[in-house]
Amino acid sequence: MPERRARKDAVRNRAAVFAAADTLFTDCESPDDVTMADIAAAAGVGKGTLFRAFGDRAGLIRALYAARLEPVEEAVEAGPPPLGPGTPPLQRVPALLDALLCFKLDNRHLALALEGSGSGSPYRAAHYERWHTLLRTMLEGLPGLPDSGFAAHALLAAVRADLVEHLAGEERVPREVMRSQLADCTAAFIGSPRDPE
Amino acid sequence: MPERRARKDAVRNRAAVFAAADTLFTDCESPDDVTMADIAAAAGVGKGTLFRAFGDRAGLIRALYAARLEPVEEAVEAGPPPLGPGTPPLQRVPALLDALLCFKLDNRHLALALEGSGSGSPYRAAHYERWHTLLRTMLEGLPGLPDSGFAAHALLAAVRADLVEHLAGEERVPREVMRSQLADCTAAFIGSPRDPE
DNA sequence: TGTAGAAGCGGACCCCGGGTCCGCATTCTA
DNA sequence: TAGAATGCGGACCCGGGGTCCGCTTCTACA
Known about the structure:
The structure is a homodimer of 197-residue chains. The first copy, chain A, has helices spanning 8-27, 36-43, 47-54, 57-78, 89-106, 108-115, 126-140, 148-157, 161-170, 175-190. Chain A is mostly helical and 197 residues long. In chain A, helix 6 (108-115) packs across helix 9 (161-170) and helix 7 crosses helix 8 (148-157). Chain A binds a DNA duplex (30 and 30 nucleotides) through helix 1, helix 2 and helix 3. Chains A, B: Residues 35-54 bind DNA.
């Protein structure tokens, strides 16, 4: 299989771009005052290199996002309860949403950049599809719930990046408050730990 | 009060731009392949006129959106039940969400353009604030519900333009199906017509 | 180690869309 | 009807994403 090994400088440059972009997005005010030229400059690299490595802006952002997301996916796929598999939905659904919320809080600009990346709706991203499928599957096991596909969409919509950003940034809702509010809402929806009167 | 009357040609042109933009957005594939130059051309007007009348692209979109939304606001503020005032929250909340869903279905591109308009998050729009306040107020009267502010955000997130667009466009969910799914979800959340066991 | 040629580099360049500007036309006021 | 004020419009600017191609650097093979 003639998949030739990548050249050393190529991997080095790719890594440099990756690191530069990561810090730039972390430190910026808003994701779209981080320009491709900025990234190239910060990485000490030409624009051509950058586009060769990642295709386009969206590709770069996806790559960064995926890298940051990896630990979460790991934890969901093979981690311990309550996130990992083998946990009953009543605990796992809130745990998943909480994890996503925390992730977006920790990676605000990146998530914002991804979800708002031009015309590409967030709903075409591969990882969205995965969360949605997982969530829907879990919801299906729950009694008294409506169409689980739509419900999964609705729950995921509650942790969308720009909403999270708005709450954290504009309304200055502290992290823990937000987490508990989300937990309460989730509980109200899937109807678990509200003690039955 | 020296607010001089606007010139005849000015109002005429403003109207022309308005109409042209409206049809363009309605007929387009995606809101961002309708360009400001296109609108000006379609209205038979120079770009300068267009920008003078509406400030910038976002302003124009807001104006269009507001015009389309007006009937809905009317119905909510002073219409008959279940949308109008004086309806108990248990019916009015679902009615409001349903109305919003229908609105977004009927004005997909416009809503998409508004919510995705560049850096401006949907959460800064004036009308969002109004829906949120109204919804929160209604939710406050309901028993067993968590923080109504967050809950209101979450419910509104379920009818966001790009989600609606995705469901209607990509997944080809028919209008009535979507409405009933939303209704079911709302019911599950505010906990109304699930008959108590 | 030398060398051929592929793989990659980089920044000048292009394109396109939002937004501005200013000389000219139109409309209001006296 | 003269003059001022207001508005018109399209040439123009700017900035960012994306491309291109002559040159450099690495690798494979001897």
